[in-house]
From TrEMBL:
Listed name of the protein: Uncharacterized OsmC-related protein
Source species, domain of life: Bacteria
Species for this entry: Nocardioides psychrotolerans
Pfam families for this protein: OsmC
Length: 151
């Protein structure tokens, strides 16, 4: 994996490698050695669309949890990401994307602070912090390329 663009600053590059491991099955590997299996929907592995939804929920969840947990640790913390896959004149894509937080904090002053702050944390995450949803919202173009012949 190489960075095709000049780096605008330190530690900005992100990337994964995807390798076919079987018919309709792949593994994504990050630079730290983490592996996520990806499938076509014929097995339990996450599909690419499900991974996009997981990325939306994960990015927002990590951020909101970090911000609210400074006030109080949650008793429960669940995030749902959903949308509808459609095919129209624009091709296949998701519409109606929604990320929903279901968070419970303990009773008491610290829990009250976290409850009051939760809507602000969600809004800040949506408006400026979550890289995944900001990228989707802003609509960054994706370039596709074919690696040069290795023979």
């Amino acid at each position: 994996m190489t960075d095709p663009l000049p780096s605008p600053g330190p530690d900005t590059w992100r990337g994964i490698d995807l390798t076919r491991i079987g018919e309709g099955r792949y593994k994504a590997t990050n630079q730290r050695g983490g592996i996520v299996p990806i499938g076509s929907g014929q097995d339990p592995d996450f599909t690419p669309v499900e991974l996009l939804l997981a990325a939306l929920a994960g990015c927002a969840g990590v951020t909101v949890d970090e911000l609210t947990s400074r006030r109080s640790q949650p008793l429960s913390f669940d995030v749902t990401a959903e949308g509808h896959k459609v095919r129209d004149d624009g091709g296949s894509h998701l519409v109606g994307l929604k990320v929903t937080f279901d968070v419970t904090f303990p009773e008491g002053a610290d829990g009250d602070k976290a409850r009051v702050f939760l809507p602000r944390a969600v809004q800040q995450t949506h408006d400026r912090i979550c890289t995944v949803s900001r990228t989707v919202t802003l609509g960054e173009p994706v370039d596709y390329a074919i690696a040069e012949d290795r023979a």
